[in-house]
Design goal:
heterodimer, A: mainly alpha, about 0% strand, B: mainly alpha, elongated
């Protein structure tokens, strides 16, 4: 019974924790401009993050060591340093976006300017990362993030023409008003949002925090193979809501308030309150994950004591990195930079940095010295190799498309 | 002529790159005078932003009228919509369009200005809780958005 409860909790938190500010904004933007014609990218991204999370989770369960630790040993300090710099830069950008997202959610609930909330949000996140236990951080915000199911309920309530939506999703055709480069720019952004590197760092390091062993593999796979696709359905619901209400009205999403508008139409005040709670939980949880991911990556590369399973005093440098990152993120946001714009940058740069994260995982998961009998089999290798090509294409295309389409505005 | 030392050559390259960057940066300060196609494209984008924000404000007013939305959330979105309208309008008005597109300039500038004024009125009505003004304002904004959308489509 305890095992079933633990499995259910893992799946629920995987669903609730799947969506972050990047998913919220990008899915709503895409839905409001392209309808469901980019749904295939969400499906592609969910399968991809599932494949690589399973690999990195397996590496942890078998070797007892997190991704960055193994990458450094397997690829050498120089290659791992390049990997570290790229990944931490992108994760830090995501961290800024998530803290900004929390401030925007609070602003939406109170109408007090987001800049007022930034210092309090940053301080609260730092305090949670300093004091709260790992499983509380993971479970509490993951469960609260389930509030975003309100988008699925809203979509149902809005009563769209399901066959037309499905046809739009399957044909993957763009609206006449949009250009193909813009379509592919958003495809790359959506893919980057679904496969954000920090998710893998957090997932694998979390495995060490929770002391996974090979016996945990079935539970880990259930979390990934059931929880992530259901989380992907939340992303599709957000896009679907925008496609049904905002696209026909000519509204393109620039703010969190516009993301919530379809829920207001469908469910009124209660729906809006639940949506705001979901925004808060999803972004706060993701901010904790990204903050930890920065600390994990740096701590693991330099071989410091790291993790929530040590007292802060015993992992002082790990906590110092988190503190500095949090202060930096807060300061960047206080320059009055638009958090939505930071989010847009973060998902595109995530796409750019994807190979840095996923290539080493594929290499390590194939290494029999580390993995023994749990090394990659043909299915994992086939999927991993296909995804590596997709990841490379997305990475190469990200910057040129961003410049060409003026960040999707052309 | 003696070949330059690598360090001196590198300095020259750095100086050239710095000068090029400075020139590119400063070129952003010069008011743009785009050709007709570019100007139409800018007008289309401005109208797109106008339609999006005007419709958003109208939606908020209708939802407030039906008591389906909290005022704080409405005020927050209103602020952003006003800001976006101001930004789009200012960016367009800073351009000097070709003479043959003066009619387009007048229409876009005037409608964007109307949208800004009506969005300001809407925010005032929401902050003062003047519920009677919500629906008439929403209707005016929708009709303005329709006009802008028609022109936007004709420019595609």
């Amino acid at each position: 019974m305890k095992k079933i409860l633990s499995l259910a909790l893992g799946i629920l938190t995987a669903i609730g924790g799947f969506v972050d500010i990047g998913d919220l904004v990008t899915n709503a933007q895409v839905g409001s401009r392209f309808g469901m014609s980019l749904a295939w990218v969400v499906v592609l991204g969910v399968i991809g993050i599932g494949v690589f999370s399973e690999m990195s989770g397996r590496v942890v369960a078998v070797s007892g060591r997190p991704t960055f630790d193994v990458i450094r040993e397997r690829l050498g300090p120089r290659a791992a340093m390049a990997n570290l710099v790229g990944s931490v830069a992108v994760t830090l950008l995501t961290y800024i976006a998530e803290i900004g997202g929390v401030a925007l959610a609070l602003e939406l609930g109170t109408s007090v300017y987001e800049y007022f909330w930034v210092p309090f949000t940053a301080a609260a996140i730092w305090f949670v990362l300093w004091r709260a236990k790992f499983n509380i951080i993971e479970n509490a915000f993951g469960l609260l993030g389930l509030a975003l199911i309100v988008f699925s309920v809203a979509l149902w309530q809005l009563g769209p023409d399901w066959s037309q939506m499905l046809s739009n999703a399957v044909t993957a055709d763009k609206p006449d008003a949009e250009a193909w480069p813009t379509y592919f720019y958003y495809a790359v952004a959506l893919f980057g949002a679904a496969m954000t590197p920090y998710e893998v760092f957090f997932f694998s390091s979390g495995g060490v925090e929770e002391k996974w062993s090979p016996s945990f593999l079935p539970t880990m796979r259930a979390n990934v193979l059931i929880g992530f696709p259901l989380g992907g359905l939340l992303s599709l619901s957000i896009a679907g809501c925008a496609a049904v209400t905002l696209l026909p009205a000519g509204v393109s999403v620039d703010t969190l308030g516009q993301v919530a508008l379809p829920v207001v139409f469908a469910l009124g005040k209660i729906g809006l309150a639940i949506a705001i709670l979901g925004f808060f939980a999803a972004t706060f949880g993701a901010a904790c994950e990204t903050g930890l991911a920065v600390g994990y990556s740096v701590g693991q590369y330099f071989g410091w004591q790291w993790g929530k399973f040590f007292r802060p005093r015993e992992a002082a440098r790990f906590h110092a990195v988190i503190l500095v990152s949090t202060v930096l993120a807060g300061l960047v946001l206080l320059t009055t930079v638009d958090p939505i714009m930071v989010t847009e940058f973060s998902v595109v740069f995530s796409a750019l940095a994807l190979p840095l994260t996923y290539l080493p995982i594929l290499i390590v998961a194939n290494d029999r010295d580390y993995m023994g009998r749990h090394h990659n089999k043909w299915l994992a290798n086939t999927l991993g190799s296909i995804y590596l090509v997709i990841v490379l294409v997305a990475s190469i295309a990200a910057l040129p498309l961003m410049i060409w389409t003026k960040m999707g505005t052309a | 002529m003696r070949p330059a030392y690598p360090a001196a050559r590198a300095r020259r390259v750095y100086a050239a790159v710095a000068a090029a960057l400075l020139a590119v940066t400063l070129s952003g300060c010069i008011p743009a005078t785009p050709d007709a196609d570019t100007y139409r494209d800018k007008a289309e984008r401005t109208l797109g932003a106008g339609v999006s924000q005007t419709t958003t404000v109208a939606m908020i007013l209708r939802n407030l009228h039906k008591d389906k939305m909290f005022r704080p959330a409405a005020i927050t979105q209103m602020r952003y919509s006003q800001g976006s309208l101001d930004t789009a309008s200012t960016a367009f008005n800073e351009l000097t369009g070709p003479a043959q597109l003066d009619d387009l300039t007048r229409k876009v500038s005037s409608w964007m200005s109307d949208a800004q004024t009506k969005a300001d009125d809407a925010r005032t009505a929401i902050e003062r809780g003047n519920r009677g003004e919500y629906l008439p304002l929403a209707k005016e904004l929708t009709s303005l958005a329709d006009k802008m959308e028609k022109l936007e489509k004709s420019l595609r």
